[in-house]
Amino acid sequence: MQQAITAPEARRRLTAVPEAEAVDPLAAEVLELRALNEQLSRAMASRAVIDQARGMLMVLAPCSSDRAWGLLVELSQRSNVKLRLVAAALVAAAGDEPLPEPVRRELRAVLRRLQSAGSP
Prior knowledge:
This protein is mainly alpha-helical. Helix content is 75%, strand content 0%. It contains five helices and no strands. The protein has helices spanning 7-16, 25-60, 65-79, 83-94, 101-117. Helix 1 (7-16) runs antiparallel to helix 2 (25-60). The longest helix has 36 residues, at 25-60. 13% of the residues are buried. The mean pLDDT is 85.
């Protein structure tokens, strides 16, 4: 199985090679495509969890899909936790996993603000 590398790592490997030992352009393209493939695979895997968390927020808030996205972004920024990890924590909480404290605190604050504003 191939080891996954990121695009920056692929670029670093390519630029670390002295000019006399320049990498074949085809090999360079393969490295970049592997990195891109890995990034896309991670994005697709986290997309389902993010969509589930969005749906949960639509029920909790209640709000539109776009507003739920904004809430997820806000939760991520205010709790200083990556959005995909916030989404995963929300989904896990539906299965009786405890929410991390920063996410729980910010979720409460966001829901309180929405409730007091009465916004959809």
